[in-house]
# Entry
Amino acid sequence: MRPLKIALLDLNNQVPNQGMPSILALTQKFQASSPLEIEIDAFEVRIKQELPKVRDYDIFISSGGPGSPHPRGEPWEGPYAEFLEALWEHNKTHAVKKYAFLICYSFQLAVLHWRLGTLNKRFSYGFGIMPVHKTDRGDKEPLFEYLPDPFYAVDSRGFQFIEPDYPRIEALGIELLALEKIRPHIDFERAIMAVRFSNEIIGTQFHPEAEPESMLINLELSENRAAMIENFGLEKYEQTRAQLDDPDKIRLTQRTILPGFLESAAKALTTQITS
# Structure
């Protein structure tokens, strides 16, 4: 069997963060443990306008990133939209599929591209380790099978997907998998936190790649500590640090979702390629 090729799409706009290093580490761990031959390439989407050809890769992981997901006329926006559409069209017409996982900013771009509902700015920036609640469909999602309800994930976002267009979602065969935490004291609609766009494409508003060690290093940098305390308060900072030690929170999520996606995609591709 030929090698499976994985493309990592970096949308962080060269802003220092732990997202891409964590995605790369998870992917390399999968590469090292898999009996299959795996090749990994990374693409800098926003600064260098690097995008892989859909035909050249089997599995795609597209990262989070800073800023507004709404179009601003930047040169990478059109090619990224074409990339999403090429994924969709390929999977409609080919027996050997292409698999994609879209994280945070990439998730928001997909919601806008397929016009699934309202994507607006949050009343306040959301950051921390938050509970994520499964929908009825999320209870049946294979990637969430071994996670409790709610499970916990790193949330870092200034925008949100609300007011789903249910007729369009149903027409496209899209499934809403998870909602943000319950906030009975606030009269705001709960945001959608995970979507299965198709059998092959899934996305999360939260960061399934986040792991405690790198997040702790990030939080303990003096400038980050000061910024978080200024924006969210000392209690929130201390609560977040304490949650990093809990094996049933983000460590469980990090060990479950993206590894499960890679394993299931590789298994499906092995069957499709050898059939």
In short: The chain has a mean pLDDT of 93. The first helix runs from residue 19 to 33.
